[in-house]
Amino acid sequence: MSDFEGLTALVTGGASGIGRAAADLLAERGARVAVLDLDPSSVGAPLTGYRADVTDDTSVRAAVAAAVDGLGGHGVLDVLVNNAGIGAQGTVEANSDDEWHRVFDVNVLGMVRTARACLPHLRASAHAAIVNTCSVAATAGLPQRALYSATKGAVYSLTLAMAADHVHEGIRVNCVNPGTVDTPWVGRLLDAADDPAAERAALEARQPTGRLVSAAEVAGAIAYLASPLSGATTGTALAVDGGMQGL
Ligand code: NAD
């Protein structure tokens, strides 16, 4: 299947986990794909990696310009997967103001900066789509995730607002809301737990399917929302959470 033949895509946080799976799938389906990441050293052909820190506007603008140029689409970008993000644990008492600013800077402003840099290029596309990686945490009321959930609530609202703002320019904006996904991030979380096996079992039990979501399953949802197959869909959140919120 080659639903992305001739299209160009840019994926932030694409060196690991969900972003990497999405970048690989879009490339497999025919897109030319650039990855922006803090550390793109693991990214190789057919993907092209660019170093960027989404908390630094200058870095984002330079990397987007280089990536769009490198994609060879004459300034046209068809797909932006706004995915770079970091976690935070605890109640509102657990994190300092500095930590709140830092996580919002990556998870929310990082998507704003990247969207701002990409919009002129997306406007030139006949199939423009933005897919933001949100989370079940945006709406599920998860314990011990106050700061992280607040950032993803903002990503959800941002998705709806951007969908309304850009629909008349032919740019669709949607998000995916994963449950707990088996990525290096969750691996690090489990490694830090007192009892990693018990923690993993607890995370699995939270999802009615009884297992973690795979990065490939989230990538599939991202690819659908990025593809012309979902051409009439904008301003939606697609749950990829093993039934966590729906059952
Ligand atoms: P990951 O840690 O495996 O990958 C994240 C990538 O983002 C890394 O390559 C990292 O270098 C990059 N990154 C981090 N900060 C950056 C910055 N400032 N600038 C540029 N790149 C940066 O994590 P993942 O689990 O694949 O998570 C990806 C996204 O999915 C995040 O937005 C996360 O909130 C979301 N998400 C993850 C889960 C989960 O359970 N893993 C669930 C729901 C949502």
Automatic annotation (TrEMBL):
For this UniProt record, the keywords arranged alphabetically read as follows: Oxidoreductase
Q: Name one GO molecular function term.
A: oxidoreductase activity
Q: What EC number is given for this enzyme? A: 1.1.1.-
Task: List, for all copies, the residue spans of the domain called Ketoreductase.
Answer: 7-184
- A Pfam family recorded for this sequence: adh_short_C2
Q: Which InterPro entries match?
A: KR_dom, NAD(P)-bd_dom_sf, Sc_DH/Rdtase_CS, SDR_DHRS6-like, SDR_fam
CDD domains, per the entry: SDR_c
Q: What domain of life does the UniProt record list for this protein's source?
A: Bacteria
PANTHER family assigned to the protein according to its UniProt record, in alphabetical order:
DIHYDROANTICAPSIN 7-DEHYDROGENASE
The similarity annotation says:
Belongs to the short-chain dehydrogenases/reductases (SDR) family.
The protein depicted here goes by the name SDR family NAD(P)-dependent oxidoreductase
Origin species, per record, is Streptomyces fimbriatus
Q: What is the lineage of its organism?
A: Bacteria, Bacillati, Actinomycetota, Actinomycetes, Kitasatosporales
